[in-house]
Amino acid sequence: MLIRPLRSSDQQAASHLLRQLDYNVDVAELASRIDRVLASSTHFAVAAEESGRIYGLAHAYERPALEKALEVVLQSLVVDQSVRKKGVGKQLVRAAETWAISRGIDRVVLHTRIDREDARRFYERIGYKVTATSHLMTKCLA
């Protein structure tokens, strides 16, 4: 499996993957989001590709803060259900970790929904630990 930079032209495949996790994003909107991520030097986005088909993606970014050291947030990790448990997710996470290290950052954090037990177990198998639970609060400004 080739891990390569995500491209704007991957929008259809990315949309298909995100729908598998119940994130329904309009393809045109997703293209705009991908472009914005790719334009930022503090963001990292890759795709897992084999024989011209995308089987997974990962997005991470640097998060500076006042109360804690600089860290990388693994924002998105999606692996096509047809290849889950075959090492694709691990490759994508390792790519994000390698990117973090290349930037001098030694901490990666992520959030996973409490109802996604399989995801939590996956992250624990590759060395992540549950360090907090929290309430997500949002406010729509539009």
Description:
The protein has about 140 residues and is of the alpha+beta class. The chain has a single domain (about 1-125), classed as Aminopeptidase, CATH 3.40.630.30. The chain has 4 helices and 5 strands. It has helices at about 10-20, 25-40, 90-100, 115-125; strands at about 1-5, 45-50, 55-65, 70-80, 110. The chain has a 5-stranded mixed β-sheet with strand order 1-2-3-4-5, sandwiched between helices. A hairpin with a 7-residue loop joins strand 3 and strand 4. The protein starts with a strand and ends in a 17-residue tail after the last helix. The mean pLDDT is about 95.
What is the CATH H-level superfamily? Gcn5-related N-acetyltransferase (GNAT)
> Strand portion, in percent?
15-25%
In DSSP terms, counting alpha (H) and pi (I) runs of 4 or more, how many helices?
A: 4
Based on CA atoms alone, the radius of gyration comes out at 15 Å
Overall CATH architecture: 3-Layer(aba) Sandwich
Give the helices and strands, then pairings.
Blueprint: E1 2-5, H1 11-19, H2 27-39, E2 43-50, E3 53-63, E4 71-79, H3 88-102, E5 108-110, H4 117-125
Parallel strand pairs: 4-5
Antiparallel strand pairs: 1-2, 2-3, 3-4
Report a brief summary of the structure.
Helix content is 32%, strand content 25%. The protein is an alpha+beta fold and 142 residues long. It has a 5-stranded mixed β-sheet with strand order 1-2-3-4-5, with helices on both faces.
Can you give keywords for this protein?
single chain; 142 residues; alpha+beta; Aminopeptidase; 4 helices; globular
